[in-house]
């Protein structure tokens, strides 16, 4: 049922835009397109409830999803749900989950996150219209999808009243959703992998910049700090020139510009390319070259051209646009400004980023972009999910040693909530599923180019063991007396 004049389904108008790479603060960016990047890009659609928490509003919108059945073992295969996060979900990415699906004979399905990509309920992304954008609504979407797909699946394979064994996967924000889905809907999945899952909402996230310092090492860190100081001076004397040197003349707000520069360095560590950043900077320092120019070289070549960042997405004027040509940055900032914060504030001493990137900057941005009264309810979010004290079970957490986001993930381990750290020089965000570097995409998450492929392999084997064990323990909780057709109690994987 549809009603409301402002209510549109964006199917056609966005189809070209979904190919444009996204850049935003947390970002699982869609991988750069290449042969074999996706297992499938064939779109399927689900009628989804707009507001899962209203007893009177029954409006629906079209939500996009994908399925890939080539590896599925019809007799007893599980269903792996790869959760898409804060960007357009253009298909099922061919990362390490493809290897896992092959091993377990699993069907792979993926649901686009509401509002992102083609799954937006509204044409105009006004603050008012964004009120149904939250992790809580998104989890309910996943639950509804889980039921819908099981029904469709049973019809397709001509079986009845059987629930397959499900397992959920996600990286980064979708890693947090993966953990939270198992927490809130334990009857709908046998377990969860939360790869670099940021389950802790953080208001004053100073550890983020500190981790960049640790990941960079003393020498590179010192050069990065010097660059920040030099750029701050040049902004005072001739802001126009320094912004133009970085192809960022459109950023009229100086702190938007400084934030953009900080994010460029972050990305190198987060996505496993530390040497692309640090080697030339250390050389420039040794040779007495202009450090700001050397950094501009990195930002333009790597962050803008190769990584595909839109500089405009750092511009608060652009973020205010309610019909942007690329929606992810505005949408993610809304989630940041209402639910999870992760404000990447400069630590009080020894920071790499400019000290102008403080809490005030973030709060002003939220207010400027979304209006008075917008404020992240970090305490409520952590009250609702438990933060790092999440009281779920059968969730694997994994973190990359160089990834600044790991300080918002669960880093302590217990039997039911194991946590693993993958330690190597270029192990960043989602290394277990993506290999090294984490961008551009490695087909099937190839880890050959991680500085320690063994470290990745070891954690992957632990993940496989957990999936295997938890699938084997999974019981059909349906009311019918029929024993679950797929659920034989035996381990799903024989020869690993
Ligand atoms: C589905 O199963 C029923 C009962 O086992 C059978 O009669 C029917 O022919 C099957 N249909 C298909 C499409 O396989
Ligand atoms: C933010 O955290 C840092 C380091 O933990 C602390 O020194 C600072 O006082 C905090 N700022 C606010 C406003 O809470
Ligand atoms: C988006 O639109 C702006 C103007 O609003 C334009 O400058 C920019 O190049 C466009 N970006 C893309 C990726 O199309
Ligand atoms: C590993 O790095 C080498 C050298 O840069 C490159 O040629 C090769 O394609 C990379 N392998 C993978 C699997 O990415
Ligand atoms: C499970 C695990 O290895 N946790 C480690 C994650 O990283 C922190 C350091 O930030 C270690 O203290 C934990 O032991």
Radius of gyration: 22 Å
Bound molecules: 2-acetamido-2-deoxy-beta-D-glucopyranose
Give, in spatial order, the strands making up the sheet with the most strands. 2-3-6-4-7-8-9-10
What's the overall average pLDDT, rounded? 89
**CATH class division of the largest domain:** Alpha Beta
In the predicted model, the low-confidence regions spanning at least 5 consecutive residues are: 1-28, 477-496
Q: The CATH topology of the largest domain, please?
A: Rossmann fold
What's the structural domain tally? 2
Q: How far is the N terminus from the C terminus?
A: 48 Å
Molecular shape: globular
Category by helix and strand content:
alpha/beta
Oligomer: single chain
Q: Estimate percent helicity.
A: 25-40%
The tally of strands reads: 10
In percent, how much strand structure appears in the residues? 5-15%
- What's the helix count? 14
Which architecture name of the largest domain does CATH use?
3-Layer(aba) Sandwich
Q: Mind describing the biggest β-sheet?
A: 8 strands, mixed
CATH superfamily grouping of the largest domain: Alpha/Beta hydrolase fold, catalytic domain
């Amino acid at each position: 049922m549809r009603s409301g004049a402002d209510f549109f389904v964006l199917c056609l108008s966005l189809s070209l835009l979904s190919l444009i790479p996204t850049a935003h603060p947390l970002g699982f960016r869609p991988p750069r397109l290449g042969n074999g990047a996706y297992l499938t890009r064939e779109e399927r659609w689900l009628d989804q409830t707009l507001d899962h928490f209203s007893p009177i509003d029954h409006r629906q919108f079209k939500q996009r999803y994908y399925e890939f059945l080539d590896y599925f073992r019809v007799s007893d295969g599980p269903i792996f749900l790869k959760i898409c996060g804060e960007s357009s979900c253009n298909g099922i990415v061919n990362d390490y989950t493809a290897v896992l699906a092959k091993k377990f004979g699993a069907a792979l399905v993926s649901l686009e996150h509401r509002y992102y990509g083609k799954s937006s309920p509204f044409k105009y992304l006004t603050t008012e219209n964004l009120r149904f954008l939250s992790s809580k609504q998104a989890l309910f979407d996943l639950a509804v999808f889980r039921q819908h797909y099981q029904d469709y699946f049973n019809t397709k394979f001509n079986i009845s009243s059987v629930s397959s064994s499900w397992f959920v996967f996600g990286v980064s924000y979708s890693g947090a959703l993966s953990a939270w889905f198992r927490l809130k809907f334990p009857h709908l999945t046998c377990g969860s992998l939360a790869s670099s899952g940021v389950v802790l909402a953080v208001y004053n996230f100073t550890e983020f910049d500190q981790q960049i310092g640790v990941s960079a090492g003393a020498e590179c860190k010192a050069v990065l700090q010097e660059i920040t100081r030099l750029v701050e001076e040049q902004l005072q004397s001739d802001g126009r020139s320094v912004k133009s040197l970085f192809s960022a003349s459109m950023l009229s707000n100086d702190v938007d510009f400084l934030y953009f520069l900080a994010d460029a360095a972050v990305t190198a560590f987060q996505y496993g390319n530390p040497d692309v950043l640090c080697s030339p900077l250390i050389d420039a320092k040794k040779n007495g070259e202009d450090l700001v120019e050397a950094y501009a070289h990195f930002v333009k070549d790597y962050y803008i051209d190769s990584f595909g960042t839109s500089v405009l997405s750092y511009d608060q004027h652009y973020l205010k646009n309610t019909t942007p040509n690329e929606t992810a940055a505005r949408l993610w900032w809304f989630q940041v400004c209402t639910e999870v914060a992760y404000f990447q504030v400069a630590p009080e001493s020894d920071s790499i980023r400019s000290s102008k990137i403080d809490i005030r900057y973030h709060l002003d941005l939220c207010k400027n972009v979304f209006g008075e009264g917008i404020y992240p309810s970090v305490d409520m979010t952590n009250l609702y999910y438990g933060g790092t004290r999440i009281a779920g079970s059968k969730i694997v957490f994994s973190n990359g040693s160089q990834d600044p986001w790991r300080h918002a993930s669960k880093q302590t381990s217990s039997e039911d909530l194991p946590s693993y750290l993958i330690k190597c020089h270029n192990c960043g965000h989602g290394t277990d599923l993506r290999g090294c570097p984490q961008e551009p995409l490695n087909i099937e998450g190839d880890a050959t180019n991680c500085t320690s492929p063994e470290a990745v392999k070891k954690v992957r084997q632990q993940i496989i063991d957990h999936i295997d064990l938890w699938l084997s323990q999974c019981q059909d909780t349906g009311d019918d007396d029929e024993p679950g057709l797929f659920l034989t109690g035996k381990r799903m994987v024989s020869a690993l």
